[in-house]
Amino acid sequence: MCLCVNLRNVVITILSYSSTLMICIICTETTLQPNIVLIVADDLGIGDIGCYGNDTIRTPNVDRLAREGVMLTHHIAAAPLCTPSRAAFMTGRYPIRSGMDNGHRVRVLLFTGSSGGLPKNETTFAAILQKQGYTTGLIGKWHLGVNCESRNDYCHHPLNHGFDFYYGTPFTNVHDCKPGEGSVILVEVQVKLRMATGALVLGLLTLLVLRWTGSIDISWKTIACLVAFCFLFFTAWYSVFGFLRNWNCLVMRNSEIVQQPFNLETFTTRMTEEALAFIERNEKSPFLLVMSLLHVHTPFLTTKAFLGKSRHGSYGDNVEEMDWHVGKKGLAGWEGGIRVPGIFRWPGHLPSNKQIDEPTSLMDIYPTVVKLAGASLPQDRVIDGRDLMPLLEGDTQHSEHEFLFHYCGNALNAVRWHPRGSDSVWKAHFFTPKFEMGSCYQSAICECHGHFVFNHDPPLLFDLSKDPSEANPLSPDTEPLFHKIQDQIRLGVEEHRKTLTPVPLQLSWNNVLWKPWLQPCCGTFPFCWCDKDSSDSDNRLGSSQQPM
Questions:
Q1: From its phi and psi, is residue 340 left (phi > 0), alpha (psi between -120 and 50) or beta?
Q2: CA–CA separation, 373 vs 403, rounded Å?
């Protein structure tokens, strides 16, 4: 069962973004406002859990949710990367509308000491539910920024975006957080800095030898200055990249840092304990809980109890551990990067063991949750998501999304068109990555422009209703309506672009680079170490919510 609390009527949704999200909506007898639990699993593929066809990885708890609820088979993340995808989830809007994606190589926040993040003028679904009398909580990964101008302004923090309680990491789970796993933060820059340091040291040694042998006439004072410069140069770059684990991999309870860096062996279990405690504290009044798991983002945070238990190595172990936690409580265009699991469970309201093949989006959670809480959507901005309840309850058989747009950074990468009154889903790719070269080759993130991509004119076209793996591109010879479909997609793109307005880029180089005066730090900067998170479970679970 998803939750171990005494609630009568439970609705559960599991979804995935770039990644995966699961949502539990829980109704008590005493209120018409449903309690809502959203469980988000990071980077979980649609083919990696049992209910979606995988018979070699054990996910009994997620499978049970699917049997007891509604499973979406054409559910799409709004972006293939963490920061823009989470921004779309929280706002119900394409990330380009809030400046949470861009055309640079860096399309996620790299440091907790960055100034970029979810803009203050964006309204999350948590903020709307908070005004409806809900107690709102976020546990786990945030990755939407912390500070703007000072170390303690918390302008991007969850507590300033509608959440009453927060426990988790404001960053993400990356290799830098696990000793011995190496680094993924600006790796090319680190390599160049090491090469420059090596060249400086070699040059300095050469000068020393030449001065010692009298081959050149240079003062010892000059050599001393060069030694000092080399030392400062080495110290400068090591201080930025050498302390990444301490600076980025931290745990906060509300606005207080309670562990820095986080303990990989216990963090995920503590998250589940905090989630259960939040539900128990608030079960008699309406609440919203977003449980944002670190699983199954690399590096795999797998506890000893699950190591070696699956048939698919570390990844399979991590998926199975993700399923246990549920039981207790690249490039945008291709389907393999953005089609994700989506499961909704609400006994007494939603049918059980139902499958919906209509195109839906992670952005749809926003209007769905807002309307379930009895609130109205903001009228001063475009909301790209659509209320899922008519589709989930069976009142309609057709998705409200005629077009869904897929961006790579701020470039429109692909479009899917689901004509009204038709079962077909057409998808056109304007460009696709060159996987064999550049940043796409043996890399986690693909570039979106120039010689890193293949441009297609006319766009590469597929019929996803017949070819979901996108193996057979269509042509005028194989599809009689080829040109008409392309024309309709082009018109859809033109109408979509009319709704876009320029906004400040939150992921510009200035906003993503590290700023020491913004770095959250527990203890003495730059060392930033502490462990205030008591090992006493009773003390931890009994902690009260504290306002910022």
A1: beta
A2: 27
- DSSP 8-state code for residue 518: G
How far apart CA 539 and CA 290 sit, in angstroms, is 22
pLDDT tens readout for residues 156-204: 999 999 999 999 999 887 766 776 666 666 666 667 777 777 777 787 7
pLDDT for res 5: 31
Q: Is 143 considered catalytic here?
A: yes
**Beta-carbon contacts of residue 208 (< 8 Å; ≥ 6 apart):** 223
Residue 425 — very low, low, confident or very high, per pLDDT cuts 50/70/90? very high
Q: Render pLDDT for 300-309 as a digit per residue (tens, 0 to 9).
A: 444 555 455 5
82 counts as catalytic: yes
H and E: helices and strands count for the chain: 14, 17
Q: What is the dihedral of CA 100, 104, 108, 110, to 10 degrees?
A: -130
- pTM here is 0.82
> Which among 143, 156, 297, 325 is annotated as catalytic?
143
Instruction: Give, for 391, the enclosing helix (H) or strand (E).
Output: helix 389-393
Phi, psi for residue 540 in degrees, rounded to 5: -70, -45
CA distances from 76 to 357, 458, 494 (A): 12, 24, 22
Residue type, 334: W
Condensed to tens digits (0 to 9), the pLDDT of residues 119-132 reads 999 999 999 999 99
Alpha carbon 348 to chain centroid distance? 31
**Rounded Cα distance, 353 and 73, in Å:** 13
Q: All domains of the chain, ordered by start, with CATH? A: 9-173+249-497 (3.40.720.10)
- Mean pLDDT along residues 491-508: 96
- 529-532's contacts with Cβ under 8 Å and 24+ in sequence apart are 529/246, 529/260, 529/261, 530/257, 530/258, 530/259, 530/260, 531/258, 531/259, 531/260, 531/263, 532/256, 532/257, 532/258, 532/259
Rounded to the nearest angstrom, the gap between the alpha carbon of residue 73 and the centroid of all alpha carbons in its chain is 20
Q: Give the bridge partners for 168, in sequence order.
A: 140, 252
The answer to whether residues 369 and 402 touch, using CB atoms and an 8 Å cutoff, is: no
Looking at the predicted structure, is the pLDDT value of residue 541 above 50?
A: no
3-state secondary structure of 135: strand
Chain length of the chain: 548
Nearest to 114 by CA among 158, 148, 161: 148
**Catalytic annotation, pick one of 2, 82, 408, 446:** 82
